[in-house]
Amino acid sequence: MDPSPVPFELFGAAHNVVMVLTVAVPAALSLIVRRAGSEAVTRRICLGLAAVLAVNQVAYWTYRWVTVGAMTFLREHLPLHLCSIGIILAVLLLIRRDRLSYELIYFWGLAGTTNAIITPELTEGWPDYHFIQYYISHGGIVTTALFATFGLRMRPDFKSLLRAFLYLNVLAAGIAVVNLLVDGNYMYLFEAPVTASPLIFLPWPWYLLWFEVLGFGLFALLYLPVYLGRRLGASERRTAG
Fold first, then answer.
1. What are the sequence ranges of the domains in the chain?
2. Which residues of 9-34 are buried (b: 16+ CB within 10 A; e: fewer)?
3. What's residue 2's pLDDT?
4. Whole-angstrom distance, CA of residue 226 vs CA of residue 165
5. How many C-beta atoms surround the C-beta of residue 167 within 10 A?
6. pLDDT tens sequence across 7-49
7. Do residues 209 and 169 lie in contact, with contact meaning Cβ atoms separated by under 8 Å?
8. Three-state helix/strand/coil letters over the chain
9. How far apart are the first and last CA of the chain?
């Protein structure tokens, strides 16, 4: 008989390690590409990280299809949760380094996926496959957003914030229709996730309205250091001039 899986321990040793790695890995990758100053090195790192994320996600989708069957897969495991969409955006960003993918993963990934890393909807702990897959996936989104910002030196602007918020609402409207068609709960539009997050404390549908306010507030906080950095740079240039 297979041993019972190790239960996930919130802020346990394994959880703390992966949270540290989520910051340490993009910091190390950013340092490597900036010191190397080589497009070839940068491209190899981007493609290598993209390959890890893509293989991890495709393996997960395959595993779910085989273990739960087609109907449950359609209801629960299509790439329509925000984090699954974030993985696709992360892979596109690392391969193409395009502006829109960066804007969306910067705001969606850092605002939403960071919360999923700190207070995950997860029952299995290390070294269970679900734990490993979950943190490669979710940690990979945040890693990509941070690496693109500090390693590739990409930056959002205020229009990026507005676009990310608008596209998120358009996406939610489309996914709500899919939920009705397949009896699903993608993006948790019809039922709140089971999580230890203190941010989810209202019943449906009020937590959706709260998410609108919270989401825009988090987007604004994520843009604030970029805004302050640009103001400081402009002030220094005027002083030097």
1. 13-240
2. eeeeebbeebbeebeebbeebbeebe
3. 52
4. 17
5. 15
6. 999 999 999 999 999 999 999 999 999 999 999 999 999 999 9
7. no
8. CCCCCCECCCCCHHHHHHHHHHHHHHHHHHHHHHHHCCHHHHHHHHHHHHHHHHHHHHHHHHHHHHHHCHHHHHHHCCCCCHHHHHHHHHHHHHHHCCHHHHHHHHHHHHHHHHHHHHCCCCCECCCCHHHHHHHHHHHHHHHHHHHHHHCCCCCCCHHHHHHHHHHHHHHHHHHHHHHHHHCCCHHHCCCCCCCCCCCCCCCCCHHHHHHHHHHHHHHHHHHHHHHHHHHHHHHHHHHHC
9. 75
Cα distance between residue 43 and residue 152, in whole Å: 10
Tokens, residue 224: 């604030």
Q: pLDDT tens, 44-76? A: 999 999 999 999 999 999 999 999 999 999 999
> 102 — phi, psi (to 5°)?
-65, -45
Look at residue 1 in the predicted model and tell me its pLDDT: 43
In angstroms, the Cα distances linking 191 to 84, 112, 116, 172, 183 are 18, 17, 16, 14, 12
Mean predicted confidence (pLDDT) in 96-121: 93
